[in-house]
Automatic annotation (TrEMBL):
The keyword S-adenosyl-L-methionine does not apply. CDD domains: GT_2_like_c (cd04186). One of its GO terms (molecular function) is glycosyltransferase activity. Its EC number is 2.4.-.-. Belongs to the glycosyltransferase 2 family. It comes from Aquirufa novilacunae. The keyword Plastid does not apply. It comes from the Bacteria. Residues 5-125 form the Glycosyltransferase 2-like domain. SUPFAM superfamilies: Nucleotide-diphospho-sugar transferases. This is Glycosyltransferase family 2 protein. Signal peptide: none annotated. Keywords: Glycosyltransferase, Transferase. Pfam families: Glycos_transf_2.
């Protein structure tokens, strides 16, 4: 089985210099690609002079995470793709358990290794931890990470079927990726892997997080947590993926209440003096309406592939975390 590890790069020379040698050393059983997403720094010069063994695909403009990967993967032939951030340091032997899990599970569409914090490797990392879920209002969370509370990795979470796998290091079955339409380029960045995994499940495939595979992740390499554009994308895209993937009978009320919760979050930002974040939420809601009423051809699962409406956590993660004081995933009742 052929595996292509594809690192999407945007002005990430520093990360390529630091992490690409680790990827090459610890991934002898795959072909490594760097897909340059319109970088303006000297990333391409670095790749040509220091990493001639790495295959490079480049284009002139930043297409975002989703558009960039769709463009790059369309030019790569492999049985499996690994979509890997440039700030990932994979541990030795990380790929084999993922590949074995795919080979043992023919309906597995996507999977992730466990993400650990690069600075504090005994802890899970925010962007995916040990595999993700969403609650009844569409809020994403992970085993090992609820909101900003990160757990130590102490073997408490075994390999399991989950609802979404992190885009920071996402392995997908190539034919399934193409069958469900790939990533939604309209989303640009953030939440696009959740949308992809949701569509895969609607088509009858499963998603997994594999405990025997571990990578270290820096996080925030392109947009840091406080960046208003990141806030805008997260809030807008979460509403879009709910509209796209919820069972039609659940759409209106789920999105209605979710927008109320977004308003409460906006008020909290105001009280904290985070005016740019407050404005980002307003722009996100406007952006959702633009999508709803102006985007005629919405990127979604073809009707002939629709098989099931997947379920996740039926409670409210907001209530569990903030009102009931449940700070760890294993305190939740599914």
């Amino acid at each position: 089985m052929s595996v292509a590890v594809v690192i999407l790069n945007y002005n990430g020379r520093k990360f390529l210099a630091n992490f690409l040698p680790i990827v090459l050393e610890n991934t002898p059983d795959a072909t490594i690609y760097v897909a340059d997403n319109g970088s303006k720094d000297d990333s391409l010069h670095l790749l040509a002079t220091s990493f001639p063994q790495v295959s490079v695909i480049s284009w002139a403009e930043n297409l975002g995470y989703a558009g960039g990967y769709n463009y790059a993967l369309g030019q790569i032939k492999a049985d499996y793709y690994v979509l890997m951030n440039s700030d990932i340091a994979p541990r030795k032997g990380w790929l084999a358990p993922l590949l074995a899990h795919f080979e043992a599970n023919p309906l597995l569409g996507a999977a992730q290794p466990y993400l650990l914090d690069y600075q504090k490797s005994e802890y899970f990392e925010y962007a995916g931890a040990a595999g993700g879920y969403w609650d009844s209002y569409g809020y994403p969370f992970c085993r090992g990470r609820l909101f900003d509370t990160l757990e130590k990795s102490e073997g408490q979470y075994a390999t399991a079927t989950v609802n979404w796998a992190t885009g920071a290091c996402l392995m997908v079955r190539a034919d399934v990726y193409q069958k469900v339409g790939g990533l939604d380029a309209y989303l640009f960045a953030h939440m696009e892997e959740i949308d992809l995994c949701w569509r895969m499940q609607r088509a009858g495939y499963t998603i997994a997080a594999v405990a025997e595979s571990e990578v270290l992740h820096v996080g925030g390499g392109t947009l840091n947590k406080e960046n208003p554009f990141k806030t805008y994308l997260n809030f807008r895209n979460n509403l879009i993926l709910l509209y796209k993937n919820l069972e039609p009978s659940q759409r209106f009320f789920t999105i209605f209440f979710r927008m109320i919760f977004d308003g409460i979050a906006g008020i909290k930002f105001l009280t904290e003096g985070k005016f740019s974040s407050f404005t980002a939420i307003l722009k996100a809601h406007y952006g959702f309406y633009v999508y709803l009423f102006s985007v005629k051809e919405k990127h979604n699962l073809p009707a002939d592939l629709q098989k099931i409406w997947p379920q996740s956590y039926q409670g409210s993660i907001l209530k569990a975390y903030f009102l009931q004081g449940k700070k760890k995933f294993n305190q939740l009742k599914f």
